[in-house]
Amino acid sequence: MSAPSFTPRVFSGIQPSGGLTLGNYLGALKRFVDMQDQGTHETVYCMVDLHAITTWQDPEDLRRNTRELCAGFIASGIDPERSILFNQSQVPEHAQLGWIFNCVARMGWMGRMTQWKDKAGKNAENASLGLFGYPALMAADILIYHATHVPVGEDQKQHLELTRDIAAKFNHDYKTDFFPITEPVIEGAATRVMSLRDGSKKMSKSDPSDASRINMTDDADAIAKKIRKAKTDPEPLPDSVEGLGDRPEARNLVNIYAALTDQTVEQVMTEVAGQQFGQFKPRLAEVAVAKLAPIGSEMARLMNDPAEIDRILARGSERAREITAPILARTYEIVGMVK
User: Fold this and answer.
1) Residue 205 is among the residues annotated as catalytic for this protein
2) Known catalytic residue at 157
3) In this predicted structure, what is the pLDDT of residue 155?
C-alpha cells in the first residue's frame, strides 16, 4: 500500500501574551513571511490564545494582545489573503482534537517536557492542568491542518518531537496513516536572538530592562539607541565565524545583522572582519531602523482600527475551518464516535 500524500502545508503560532520583540520577528515572523512568499506550501498562522491562558491573563490585556499580535503579523508582511491568519479560540476543532490527543499522549511523555519543568518549577502542584497538557494541544494545532512542516525555534523542538510521537501512536493504535509525521524547519542566522545586555540569555519581553530588547513597537530613535548601547567586548570583530565562539555579545549582534540583511554569518564576517564595534554598531543600527521602524508604524496604524483586525481574524477562522472540520470529522470516525 502506498504512503498517503499530504498537501504541503506550514502551520505555526505565537502566544498573544504581549510585547513583540526583535526575537519574535527574526525567530518567527520573518520566517513565516519567507515561507508564505516562497509559494511552495499553504501557510497557516495563528494567535494561540488557548495556550496563553495556561497561565493567568487579564481578559482585557488578552484581547488587546491578540489584536496587536495580528497587527504584527500583517505589518511584518503576512498577507491575510495569501495565508490563513486567525486566533485559535475561534476554531473549536483545535480544542476538540486536543482532547483526543490528551487520550493518546502518555503522562510520562508530558512530564519529561523541559518547558513544563521550567515553567512549573518547584510549584508544580499549583500549575494549571492546561500547562501540563500544553504539548498535546500544540500537537492538535499542527495536525488538525495535516501540516507537513512547522518552523520552530530550538526551544519548541521537543514539543514538535512529541507531536510526531502522538501522530505515530494514533496511526499505530488505529491502524491508519491518517496524520502526517510533521517535519520541523529550524534554520536561519538568528532563530534564537539573545539579550542586548547579556549574550548568554534569550531576548525576552519579561526582562526587567527594556534596554535588553528591541520591541517591535519601538520608534527609530529607540532602536538606534538600544543598539548603540548594546553590551560588547573591547576586541575588534574576528575574521572568521570560529572567532565568535566565546564572544556571546559579538556573536549575537553579528547574527542579528546577518538575519536582517538576509546573509549567512560567514558572508557577514567577510564584510566586517576587523571592525571595531564603534564602526559596526552604527551599521547595524541603520539596517535595524530601516527594517523595523516601518513595521512599528504600520502596527500602530492597524491598532487604530480594531474592528478591521477582528474582521480579518473572523475571515481567517472561516477559512481555517474549511480545512479543520473535515479532518476532525474523519478523526472522530476513525476513533469510533457516533455521528
Assistant:
1) yes
2) no
3) 67
